[in-house]
What we know:
- By secondary structure, this protein is of the alpha+beta class.
- The chain has one helix and eight strands; from the N terminus they run H-E-E-E-E-E-E-E-E.
- It has one helix at about 5-25, and strands at about 30, 40-45, 50-55, 85-95, 100-105, 110-120, 125-130, 135-145.
- The radius of gyration is 19 Å and the shape is globular.
Amino acid sequence: xxxxxxxxxxxxxxxxxxxxxxxxxxxxxxxxxxxxxxxxxxxxxxxxxxxxxxxxxxxxxxxxxxxxxxxxxxxxxxxxxxxxxxxxxxxxxxxxxxxxxxxxxxxxxxxxxxxxxxxxxxxxxxxxxxxxxxxxxxxxxxxxx
Length: 145
């Protein structure tokens, strides 16, 4: 193979990887949950995607103290604040605007579910499930501008 062909192949591979990474990173940013009461910041660590609670409409409980993860099954974690709580963990980009292989934690009931996310412009469908995706529940989040 000539030097020009090798360079061309390497350039095409580089730009393909770049385009893939840009498409994968489209999910990054802040998202409002379905009732608008919380914002979740989706960020990247290595090649995986995570999400943490970064805004709460009502951040304090009835006693004026910051809300905590009171429903966590681990008693040692029940005093950690809700604000900053990592809800989404370990997602990978599968292509076609789908992120899978991760989990979603629901602080309202203290349970963690398998999860996949599908990005469609400024909406993100979060599907939490046990076992297979057929048996689950979906919610839609919207991008915070």
